[in-house]
Amino acid sequence: MIFVVMAYLWAAILLYILLGGADFGAGIIELFTSEKNKAYTRNTMYQAIGPIWEANHMWLIIAIVVLFVGFPEIYTTVSTHLHIPLVIMLFGIIARGTAFTFRHYDAVKDNMQKVYNRIFVYSSFVTPFFLGVIAGSAVSGRIDPDANDFLNAYVYPWLNWFSVTVGFFTVAICGYLAAIFIIGETNDDNSRVRFIRKAKQMNLAAAVFGALVFWAAHAEGIPLDKWMFDNPIGIIAIIAAVVSLGMLWYLLLKKGKIIIIRVLAGFQVTMILLAITIRHYPNIVILKGGRYLSLLEHAGQEKTIHSLAMALLLGSILILPALFYLLYSFRRSDVAEH
């Protein structure tokens, strides 16, 4: 049953990166859009992320619950030593959701709309940035459970070049996913060309920050290159990501291929995540001094894991059909409006 729980944890994290990433990316795209195009971009993004926004934080909740119930030592370590970026990320999620709701459903249209817009776009940037910071910190080897002062215990584990560059890389990936997702929601060729250009810009930004991640990893003694290129699965995953990227940009030149394009973008990000994690998985948290926290060695009691696995399996029977119906309902509403 432990492998069932681990599979759900990995799937929940992946789906939050893909769906939540496209959601956050909507605000990132809007942040880097000129004033004259913001209104159209905002409305188009609203149509595109509607069904995702309704459900994406479910995956984050599942991941947190799985860690809390099934892997309490890992949950405690991360939530203690990384509580500062975690709190900022959670405030970003709350602020973003609130601003999104009020700017679209507020009964009074006044100058507060500008405030809501600013909160939405800046929290859309801050939230995935600190999500990336947390992810980078978990594998940076900077978390020291034996630290006896505030800075070493709660600041230095995440305030380092590697974690910061992973944060910026995550922001770029989110913008890239959103730009790819929104291309299929455009109504004219000019808008399609503009969002393709946005996708190219975000793709370039992801490449630049990805290179900076490798630089920071090398500078801080993190064996990221070995994790990705020192095993056959990692190499295959990187090759698959590069090939899917080439196919994606080729298909962007053809209309009517948006479903395939979205699948390729999601597949590309999945392969990148697989390449980064497969070498040290199931060591989900790497501590200072070469120690680690493993999903296999630091799991909860066997009865707890068994009950958690059964709950996840039974919950899927209720959650997944409801999620598919939600997506179907939004898509049907969009078709009716057009």
Itemize the secondary structure elements and their pairings.
Layout: H1 2-31, H2 35-55, H3 57-70, H4 72-81, H5 83-105, H6 112-138, H7 150-155, H8 161-183, H9 189-219, H10 224-229, H11 232-251, H12 258-277, E1 283-286, E2 292-294, H13 302-337
Antiparallel strand pairs: 1-2
Helix pairs in contact: 1-2, 1-3, 1-6, 1-8, 1-13, 2-13, 3-4, 5-6, 6-8, 8-9, 8-12, 11-12
3D structure, described in words:
With 338 residues, the chain is an all-alpha fold. It has one domain (2-221, 295-337). It contains 13 helices and two strands, in the order ααααααααααααββα. Strands 1-2 form a two-stranded antiparallel sheet. β1 and β2 (292-294) form a beta hairpin. The longest helix has 36 residues, at 302-337.
Name a few traits of the molecule.
single chain; 338 residues; mainly alpha; two-stranded antiparallel sheet; 13 helices; membrane; electron transfer activity; cell membrane; oxidoreductase activity, acting on diphenols and related substances as donors, oxygen as acceptor; transmembrane
Provide a concise account of the structure shown.
The chain is built from 13 helices and 2 strands, in the order ααααααααααααββα. It has helices at residues 2-31, 35-55, 57-70, 72-81, 83-105, 112-138, 150-155, 161-183, 189-219, 224-229, 232-251, 258-277, 302-337, and strands at 283-286, 292-294.
